[in-house]
């Protein structure tokens, strides 16, 4: 599993560096979808998908923090990204559906972590989180 300091760094980044700016039409993203994917979602989903035989509270916390980061990234993806066309893509029904499913799956991961239930964690990660990620990549990448 990834070191917990990665998530602490992401949390610190989120609290000290703005990820949105206030534009004429409301909040405007400062990050592209690729930056959100590479910087937040890929490392955190890797942590979730790699979580098995968790033995310490630190390991469980790392998975919980990963799920929280996925939810935060999903919040950003709801606006789209800063690159051309990404805000328009975020208005498409498929984008909204995949993003909502990703967020709900991350919430299921947190529920599994709270229960310290590895079977539920595996179900949430593999059967709830992976499908919308893969579907979105196939359609938008």
Structure explained in plain terms:
With 141 residues, this protein is mostly helical. It has helices spanning 4-16, 33-49, 57-77, 86-89, 93-115, 118-140, and strands at 20-23, 26-29. Strands 1-2 form a two-stranded antiparallel sheet. Strand 1 and strand 2 (26-29) form a beta hairpin. The protein is elongated, with a radius of gyration of 15 Å.
Radius of gyration: 15 Å
Query: Level of helix content?
Result: over 70%
How many E strands? 2
Main sheet characteristics: 2 strands, antiparallel
- SSE series: HEEHHHHH
- Count of helical regions: 6
Oligomeric status of the shown chains? single chain
Based on secondary structure, the structural category is mainly alpha
Tag the structure with descriptive keywords.
6 helices; Four Helix Bundle (Hemerythrin (Met), subunit A); mainly alpha; two-stranded antiparallel ribbon
Short description:
The chain has six helices and two strands; from the N terminus they run αββααααα. The chain is mainly α and 141 residues long. The longest helix has 23 residues, at 93-115.
Topology:
Elements: H1 4-16, E1 20-23, E2 26-29, H2 33-49, H3 57-77, H4 86-89, H5 93-115, H6 118-140
Antiparallel strand pairs: 1-2
């Amino acid at each position: 599993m990834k070191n917990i300091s990665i998530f602490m760094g992401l949390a610190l980044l989120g609290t000290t560096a703005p990820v949105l700016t206030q534009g004429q039409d409301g909040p405007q993203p400062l990050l592209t979808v690729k930056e959100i994917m590479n910087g937040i979602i890929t490392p955190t989903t890797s942590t979730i998908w790699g979580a098995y035989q968790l033995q310490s509270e630190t390991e469980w916390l790392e998975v919980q923090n990963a799920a929280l980061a996925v939810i935060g990234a999903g919040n950003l993806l709801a606006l789209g990204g800063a690159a051309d066309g990404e805000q328009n893509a975020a208005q498409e029904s498929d984008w909204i559906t995949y993003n909502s499913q990703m967020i709900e799956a991350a919430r299921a991961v947190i529920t599994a972590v709270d229960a310290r239930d590895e079977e539920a964690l595996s179900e949430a990660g593999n059967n709830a989180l992976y499908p919308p990620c893969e579907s979105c990549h196939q359609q938008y990448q």
